[in-house]
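Section 5: illustrative case.
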């Protein structure tokens, strides 16, 4: 399959190159025929000149200028004048027909050139797509080979496991024979259970509804909400100095700033929840968990960025991106925490993205509801704490703005 498609792809590339050459040739032909309309103009000028000559000669003939010319010469002259008059009359028809024919030829050439360009673009697109398919088939062939090797190794492992089970059964049989030879009394029921079933398997059934697509959704949703919050506050302007020095209370200023933010949170939560169920493959039966999780995750991300924005807007981007990188690295949904340094294991405890991702996965898997409820409480508390920090930052900035408005130097400084 891979070899055959490679041959097909090579032929397709040759075809695309040929179409490109054809398109380039038609482009040159179209450029060279742009002067054809001037031929029509020349024909019209010629026929107009002939008509003018015929009109002039006819006028002279009517005035008796040529009446003195008799005989065969006069007859020839009269025939020539009549022929020129007829030619002048049909000249306009010739010019009109020439213009129509040349216009039709030009239109056909332009249409053919446009179609060739379109075919060339389509050929390039098809050639590019075929190259990607070729690469995919090559990867598939390599993967099939790896799968065959894996099946062989699995077969060997099953054989070794079977041999080990036989050795284990022989050992149990020998132990039972030794017990009988030593004359022990009849064992209790518990001892019999241990002897007959020395190995006990304990398993937990995992929900079949959680697949690869749902796992990715539980990761990308909190990451996307974090990035949306960053972009929103990078574009959000600072309160004006007039607003900072107004008689409005800090609580009212905080509410006025937060109100449009909360509207954005509600809108993006509804959109993200819809995409999670429509595109992410999550069943609609999970919406009682997914909607509050998305809403609280958005509030937590918005709260962190709002606190930094109210404190130091210039530090918003570097702090947010650094925190995001650390959270992605310490996200236990992607990487086992045990293989990471201890500092990342400690930081994952304080990661809003980890809270949201872990709770989302637990909700989709039908796990412990306490994990989901705990994450909701943590995310809500994070938003409230961030709002309190933003309130304190706005209060201090209003005091500094008011002192500057009144000409009072900042605290710790004295006027010279």
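Designed sequence:
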């Amino acid at each position: 399959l891979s070899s055959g498609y490679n041959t097909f792809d090579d032929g397709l590339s040759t075809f695309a190159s040929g179409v490109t050459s054809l398109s380039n040739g038609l482009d040159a032909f179209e450029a060279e025929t742009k002067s054809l309309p001037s031929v029509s103009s020349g024909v019209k000028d010629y026929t107009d000149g002939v008509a003018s000559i015929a009109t002039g000669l006819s006028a002279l003939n009517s005035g008796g200028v040529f009446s003195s010319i008799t005989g065969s010469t006069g007859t020839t002259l009269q025939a020539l004048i009549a022929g020129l008059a007829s030619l002048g009359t049909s000249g306009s028809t010739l010019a009109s027909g020439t213009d129509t024919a040349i216009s039709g030829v030009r239109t056909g050439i332009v249409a053919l050139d446009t179609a060739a360009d379109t075919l060339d673009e389509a050929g390039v697109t098809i050639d590019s797509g075929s190259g990607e398919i070729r690469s995919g088939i090559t990867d598939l062939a390599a993967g099939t080979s790896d799968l065959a090797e894996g099946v062989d190794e699995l077969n060997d492992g099953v054989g070794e496991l079977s041999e080990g089970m036989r050795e284990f059964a022989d050992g149990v049989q020998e132990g039972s024979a030794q017990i009988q030879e030593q004359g022990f009394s009849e064992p209790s029921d518990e001892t019999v259970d241990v002897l007959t079933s020395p190995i006990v398997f304990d398993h937990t059934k995992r929900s079949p509804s959680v697949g690869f697509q749902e796992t990715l959704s539980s990761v990308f949703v909190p990451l996307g909400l974090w990035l949306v919050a960053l972009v929103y506050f990078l574009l959000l302007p600072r309160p004006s100095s007039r607003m900072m020095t107004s008689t409005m209370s800090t609580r009212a200023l905080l509410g006025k700033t937060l109100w449009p933010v909360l509207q954005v949170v509600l809108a993006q939560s509804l959109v993200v929840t819809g995409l999670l169920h429509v595109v992410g493959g999550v069943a609609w039966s999970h919406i009682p968990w997914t909607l509050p999780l998305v809403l609280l995750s958005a509030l937590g991300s918005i709260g962190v960025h709002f606190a930094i924005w109210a404190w130091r807007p210039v530090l918003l981007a570097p702090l947010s991106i650094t925190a995001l990188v650390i959270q992605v690295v310490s996200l236990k949904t992607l990487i086992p925490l045990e293989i990471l340094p201890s500092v990342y294991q400690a930081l994952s405890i304080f990661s809003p993205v980890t809270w949201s991702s872990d709770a989302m996965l637990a909700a989709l898997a039908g796990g412990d509801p306490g994990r989901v409820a705990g994450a909701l409480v943590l995310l809500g508390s994070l938003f409230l704490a961030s709002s309190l920090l933003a309130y304190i930052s706005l209060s201090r900035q209003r005091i500094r703005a008011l002192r500057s408005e009144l000409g009072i130097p900042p605290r710790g400084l004295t006027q010279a």
